[in-house]
Amino acid sequence: MYKNFLRYLISAIFLITFSISAKADFKVGFVYIGPTGDHGWTYQHDEGRKAVEAAGIKTTYVESVKYGADAERVIRQLAQSGHDLIFTTSFGYMDATNKVAKDFPNVKFEHATGYKREHSNVSTYSARFYQGRTILGHIAGKLTKTNTIGYIASFPIPEVIRGINAMTLAAQKVNPNIKTKIVWVFSWYDPGKEAEAAQALIDQGADIIMQHTDSTAPVQTAEKAGIWSFGQASDMQRFAPKSILTSIIDDWAPYYVERAIAARDGTWSQQDTWHGLKEGMVAMSPYNKGMGADLVKEAEQLQKDLASGKIHSFTGPIYDQKGNILVAEGKVADDGMLLGMNVYVKGVEGDIPK
Amino acid sequence: MEDLLIKIEKRNDVPTTLYFFTPFIAIILTIIGGGIIFYTLGFNPIEALKFYFITPISNLYGFSELLLKATPLCLIAIGLSFCFKSNNWNIGAEGQLTFGAIVGGGVALLFYNQEGFYILPLIIIAGAIGGMIFALIPAILKTYFNTNEILVSLMLVYVSKLILDYLVVGPWSNPEGFNFPETRQFSDSARMPLLFEGLRIHAGIFIALAAVFVSWFVLYKTYLGFQIKVSGLSLKTAKYAGFKGKTMILIVFMISGACAGMAGVGEITGPIGQLHRMISPDYGFTAIIVAFLGRLNPFGIIFASLVVSLTYLGAETTQIFLQIPQYTGQVFQGMILFFLLASDYLLFFKIKFQNFNKNELRH
Fold this sequence. Notes:
The structure holds 2 protein chains of 2 kinds.
Chain A: H1 2-20, E1 27-31, H2 41-54, E2 58-62, H3 69-80, E3 85-88, H4 94-103, E4 108-112, E5 122-127, H5 129-143, E6 148-153, H6 158-174, E7 179-184, H7 191-203, E8 208-211, H8 217-225, E9 228-233, E10 244-250, H9 253-265, E11 272-275, E12 282-284, H10 293-308, E13 318-319, E14 325-327, H11 335-339
Parallel strand pairs in A: 1-2, 1-3, 3-4, 4-5, 5-11, 6-7, 6-8, 8-9, 9-10
Antiparallel strand pairs in A: 10-12, 13-14
Chain B: E1 2-10, H1 16-40, H2 45-54, H3 60-85, H4 93-110, H5 119-145, H6 149-169, H7 204-221, H8 223-233, H9 235-240, H10 245-272, H11 283-293, H12 298-322, H13 328-348, E2 349-357, H14 358-361
Antiparallel strand pairs in B: 1-2
Helix pairs in contact in B: 1-2, 1-13, 2-12, 3-7, 3-8, 3-10, 3-11, 3-12, 4-5, 4-6, 4-10, 4-11, 5-6, 5-10, 7-8, 7-10, 7-12, 11-12, 11-13, 12-13
């Protein structure tokens, strides 16, 4: 009896403190997994935030927020301190975002690359990065001399495996002998580990390096070794001017501005967004002339065809590593299959870490 | 010709009150130092310090978060105080925390989707045993093979993290988790009961408080505590008195490991609710600062754990409100330790300026 009373009393005080945090300006909060100076993933999200700011909306960000106990507190603090829309920009914030969303029905939440929308105030969004990977694969397949492509991967989640497969399929189309070697670093941002992984791949004969991690360490390692590489998330050209063939750019700015304005004007509603080259959420940085004028033309044409939908990154026949058919001839993989992808296609070396 | 000579002498009588007072001086100096840093960054120092030290705990939720963060720090620091008091330099509490969480988390997964009041106590005991086993490795190597416990315990941190990596990526990963490196969410019977609706603070705080009282009793009221303190002050005296040094080393490491292991279990069964790769933002290392700031005294450690966890929370709020990088938290923790060590130095040694004649030496 007494215990219950105490519980209610404290819950009441707790709720009152919440409601006191008065509404003033419309504010948008951002939670980042890495530092804004990573020049990759987080950097691009921060560019998106700056665009929102330029549109006349106040923003706040918190960088280098670890998954786990800290993420939930940071998201909750943003919600509590009067932020009306909160972007949580990494997969690992999925559960924390939904948990906090439950307690703040008036605050809108946007979670990047996740799939859980447990409450009506949670939207998810992601980009079809794999379309960019198809272009990288085409270029890599044409340029490699050792027929070995080195791939630095973060976590074996569908998004990353999808990228590996899209790249490998495109490379095979122009060069059937291609092999994709992968090193898993189990981190989104760890320059030391990423550089080591790049070196390990070079030592194993890879003459083209690409990455699904956020730092510029791999492209710098490739530049030093005098081999080709591809930038990730933002235009990394200035970190490896000779080596980088092109970078896949994540352009979140238009989406962030659109959603922030919608939330401010009261027209925001729950969505699941998956945009690509067509909408401009995925873009390619200028192609390196070093690859040859013909190849630049091919890449530009491929980019157009992927954007228009004339070419799909996952067009059958596609086989898994054992030779079983995944997508039949003449068919394309549907979004459901892409979202749950957890097998390698033929030509990728090794096993998915299990 | 005359020169100024700086002479450093050990003080013979250091008053106990001053000894317990210096941590406060260190904290005040940290606040002043922090204010100067904020000022040079172009912020109003008073306002920035307010955001740093007051805003995080200005409401009930914030205060509960402070206690939540202080719980593992306090528990680990209590364990470490046994080691440090007896001159055993266990630097690897982070590894013992991780291994405790692995063993405890393993038990939690074993009882997945089962009900029972006995599950949580089992997990806690498993975590304590896990931490204990992991702490015994440097202890045994030290007592029987004369290795350096600082190096061994520190390097074992990386070993434990790699074991955790392997488990959450491989055999223990969530079958429905799209290969993301994490286990299933533990079922409710494997979670620490929450103390209040809507707050994350959990029953683990009672484990930390119990550890404080038990350690006070052991250190100040038992023969073991006396042995620990004597060995800390002088190993030779301890040997002369016939204390069994080896057994004592094993015991203090086991206590320390058990505390760290339980802290790990408190995190995974409390706010996190599963095992993944980042179960601790280096609590095991930060607890070393806590232990020294608390003067290795059980009640001092409670106070120190609250101060240090405030530096974490303050870093988050100053970033939210003033957009100052979160790394200021580490700067503040570093300043606290620096000022504490510096004021300790001045406490235990006196610096004398003397004039002396070089010519005299030439004879």
